[in-house]
Prior knowledge:
alpha+beta, 126 residues, 5-stranded antiparallel beta sheet, globular
Amino acid sequence: xxxxxxxxxxxxxxxxxxxxxxxxxxxxxxxxxxxxxxxxxxxxxxxxxxxxxxxxxxxxxxxxxxxxxxxxxxxxxxxxxxxxxxxxxxxxxxxxxxxxxxxxxxxxxxxxxxxxxxxxxxxxxx
Length: 126
């Protein structure tokens, strides 16, 4: 598999109490919290790219744009899809969409950069 536009991944979750804005501290309502939704979208981008990376490579997030447009209460099933839309050297751009049964919940883009895992981690210990 090669890194090329069109790589996709899909996650399906049911919103749990632990996913809510109230529980994670990003608000005081019992709906899917924006930070949790973003983490799920990032998880989908990681999954989309993982099978196409060379041994020893990983990706790290560098830029995010998201519009969270609908609330998802506890018990709602939300599907998050991510698709690789652009490859520019080591830079990868993904588009993502989150939907429940009746509406788009969020859309956005996530940029990630391919790095050598060992070199990246070595820089952290300096």
